[in-house]
Design a protein that fits this description.
The chain is an alpha+beta fold. The chain has 14 helices and 20 strands.
Length: 472
Amino acid sequence: MTSSIVFKSFTGLRHSTTTTTAVESSKTPTTTISPLHHRTRRSLQISASKTSPKLQNRNLRVAVIGGGPAGGAAAETLAKGGIETYLFERKLDNCKPCGGAIPLCMVGEFDLPLDIIDRKVTKMKMISPSNIAVDIGQTLKPHEYIGMVRREVLDAYLRERAESNGAKVINGLFLKMDKPKGSATAPYVLHYNDYDGKVGGAGEKKSIEVDAVIGADGANSRVAKSIDAGDYDYAIAFQERIKIPDDKMVYYENLAEMYVGADVSPDFYGWVFPKSDHVAVGTGTVTHKGDIKKFQLATRNRAKDKILGGKIIRVEAHPIPEHPRPRRLKDRVALVGDAAGYVTKCSGEGIYFAAKSGRMCAEAIVEGSEYGKRMIDESDLRKYLEKWDKTYWPTYKVLDVLQKVFYRSDPAREAFVEMCADEYVQKMTFDSYLYKRVVPGNPLDDLKLAFNTIGSLVRANALTKEMKKMSV
């Protein structure tokens, strides 16, 4: 059955090109310097352009638009690297509608304190359209877990850490920017409403000059619009935070649930993720956005016995990009995180990739500017894109294929859940998720998995046909 499936070429991330421009070829690596992030063991190679002008009596100025994980990570890296950094966030207490799952590698890579992690999930239940539940997590090692965070806690922590390292956090709404005029090194002029910590009102209109801009302002990015980055398909994520009785919260102490089925989403999944003192119940869809509340009700109904007596304490909705934008870079402006479209298919994960892309983009600026001493150009930012695509293209490709195969019908979803019971599948899945790499498999186990997958698809399809006959 699977042999008849034809996949379109993946049009998101691409392998980096081997073409070298005249500007890039003029850059020569010099010395290895001390690590940019003092708690990580990575050296930073400086390769500033010989033709890039040195800045006189000031350091490079960069504005980061958006104070989520992408913006916070970018601003911290820039500030540590000697860049004059401005971090704009319109709503400092924003509770974003996000499942809040982060991989284990993010805790170490970004030096996250354990007290901002609400729950350490070591068990998961994958629940099929016919309510068959498969327990996942048996291959996890004692120290391994999936972290569950609240975005308002994580985002605030990353912003505050960036500020403590020298970034200036501005509570303001970015409106537009004027492109450089007169020379290749002329500044961008950013216009924004400055709220100065005040609640309500339109704020005070202000402007600021910077040398480069990082757009980390989400799926509806104004920075993306300003560089004609193009549109993309997007999903609507809808989530309710539900305070459930203490005895029911015990069930979700270290357990998360994922529900698949056309009732909860025609092209995604529903979830129940544990947080500090409540659970987050949600779903998402690209193809049927107008029915999102119906799908949310179905998700609640699927989990109703376990959340009975719960009280909804917050309702949230937010767009989630489905693939990278056609353009992620122009001149001295680059996009990261959701603004660039870095959310994975199948899993819908975006927090780690947002923070990672923000850091990688900022590192390219620090490297290209020799710690803020030189002007940068598009070739410096392009190195970030090439490194990103080379590193993460396989991950996006694999998850794109999985979504095409297993989220297309309820029989395929039944097969997916059945396949998740396989210990080899669980090990491969968790290793790839926790450490953000496409794990090479055992050829014999891969062959066995291929046969089992085909068998699961055939059995699920046959079961569905019999159920339809019984309902006639």
